[in-house]
Amino acid sequence: MIYSWELKYLNGYLSFKIGATYHKSQILDDDGQWSEGLISAAKMVAAATHSLCESANAMVQGHATEERLIASAKEVAGSTAHLLVACRVKADPDSVAMKRLQAAGNAVKRATEVLVKAAQQAKQRDEDEDINVAVDSRKVGGIKQELQIQEEMLRKEREWIEAREKLAKFRKQRYKDTGHDSDSSSAF
Predict the structure, then answer these.
(1) pTM greater than the 0.90 cutoff
(2) pLDDT digits over 64-81, tens only?
(3) Which of 78, 75, 101 is nearest to 88 (CA)?
(4) For residues 112 and 77, is the Cβ–Cβ distance under 8 A?
(5) CA dist., res. 15 & res. 100, Å (int)
(6) 32-60 vs 66-88: helix axis angle to the nearest 10?
(7) Counting CB atoms within 10 angstroms of each CB, which of 1, 142, 150, 183 has the fewest?
């Protein structure tokens, strides 16, 4: 049960922080669901940021790949965007706090883009150094070598497709578990 002093405090806090003001009936009806969404979005940002830190640490120690770091950075950007959308629902778009929040969100987006670009460049450098193929000069040996390379390529393509389908199923199930009915398996 929400007491009147809590409503006054909440209304004053929200008015001060994000320029949003509410009437008592609005707070009782809408604010619970909005607050849950806001808290959920903030938790997703925290979890994504934690994952990014773990990925970066593991990559520095040689235990993770650039792909994991890139996926973590994209998750931070995506969850931050969701948090901003949740804040915009009830915030005054012209308030100083909302403008600062938007600027912070843009800074997160730029930082993750820079991180992804740097990781991709490092990955490309590593791949360029690793791709030294010694071609067998005999005709039969060369054909065999080409078939092995094609086999490896097809195997990795299949693994990529399976991983993409697994991610789509995971996102769909997570979305259903949160009580929504639509498909949210879009990728970055």
Answers:
(1) no
(2) 888 888 899 999 999 999
(3) 101
(4) yes
(5) 15
(6) 160
(7) 1
Residue type present at position 33: Q
Q: Is 91 helix (H, G, I), strand (E, B) or coil?
A: coil
Angle at the Cα of 128 from the Cα atoms of 126 and 134, rounded to 5 degrees: 120
Q: Which structure tokens are listed for 149? A: 């390379």
CA 131 to chain centre: 31
pLDDT of residue 133: 67
**For the domain that residue 28 is a member of, what is the CATH number?**
1.20.1410.10
81 and 165 belong to one structural domain: no
User: What span, in angstroms and rounded, lies between the C-alpha atoms of 36 and 39?
Assistant: 5
Instruction: Enumerate residues 6+ apart whose C-beta is below 8 A from 7.
Output: 24, 27
Domain count, the chain: 2
Q: Tell me, yes or no, whether 127 and 140 share the same domain.
A: no
The domain boundary residue, chosen from 132, 150, 168: 132
4 contacts: CB under 8 Å, gap ≥ 6: 24
What is d(CA 70, CA 74) in angstroms, rounded to the nearest whole number? 6
Residues of the domain holding 171: 134-188
Based on the fold, state whether residues 68 and 139 are members of the same structural domain.
Answer: no
pLDDT above 70: percentage of residues in the chain: 73
